[in-house]
Amino acid sequence: MTARAGFNPDESPLARLASRGGRGGGAFLDASETIAGERLRADFTRGQLMPGITQRWDSQPRQARGSAGSRDLSDSAIDARRRVDAAVVAVGPELSGVLLDVCCFLKGLEVVERERQWPARSAKLMLKAGLGVLARHYGIDAARQSGRPTIRRWGTADYRPTIGGGLEG
Q1: Coil/strand/helix, residue 27
Q2: pLDDT single digits (tens) 89-124
Q3: Which residues are CB-neighbours of 44 under 8 A, at least 6 positions away?
Q4: CA dist 81 → 25, 90, 94, 115, 163 (Å)
Q5: What is the DSSP letter of 67?
Q6: Is residue 107 within 8 Å of 101, Cβ to Cβ?
Q7: What does the angle CA 146 – CA 152 – CA 156 come to, to the nearest 5 degrees?
Q8: What string of DSSP letters covers 82-150?
Q9: CB 109 within 8 Å of CB 13
Q10: Residues in domain DUF6456 (predicted)?
Q11: Confidence band (pLDDT; 50, 70, 90) for 5?
């Protein structure tokens, strides 16, 4: 994973999980799962969805989300919020909470397990399942990300190639 502006891979729980080995000797998270999680995090950040924790020194009261205060958001922030909403809906309520906690709020797996009163090491499995669904939602292919060749074809779903047919003039 390469570093880019505004992104510190050392603070990402996904980067740590992607570097750790799984049972078969390979990484616990494959490239598509890691990319999907970081894409969710990037949209969450662009959408300015992180709650404010600092003192506001202006005289304007803070407005509720979705009210007139959303006029101040740029179009790219609004689009990022829509992408986060679509991703959360695609993943479903069962897995979206752990994805948001780990990918966006940068909580550790132990913290998620303690807050949700889950058994040890269960958040790791739930996260992997959620990232797999998220990668499918984003259309990120694990084979393409790993450098393995994939078979691609162009055509409609009912397209059937002919065998033995050449160019006839």
Answers
A1: strand
A2: 999 999 999 999 999 998 999 999 999 999 998 999
A3: 50, 80, 84, 100, 103, 104
A4: 37, 14, 20, 25, 48
A5: S
A6: yes
A7: 140
A8: HHHHHHHHHH-HHHHHHHIIIIIS---HHHHHHHHTPPTTHHHHHHHHHHHHHHHHHT--HHHHHT---
A9: yes
A10: 7-139
A11: very low
Both tokens of 150, joined, read: 């994939």
Instruction: Give Cβ neighbours of residue 17 (< 8 Å, ≥ 6 apart).
Output: 28, 29, 34, 124, 127
Instruction: Evaluate if pTM is beyond 0.90.
Output: no
- The closest of 100, 86, 109, 122 to 37, measured between CA atoms, is 100
- At 27 the pLDDT is 77
Please provide the average confidence, as pLDDT, over all residues in the chain: 79
Q: 128: closest CA among 13, 3, 4, 10?
A: 13
Q: Which residues lie across from 21 on neighbouring strands?
A: 27
User: How many other CB atoms are found less than 10 A from the CB of residue 21?
Assistant: 9
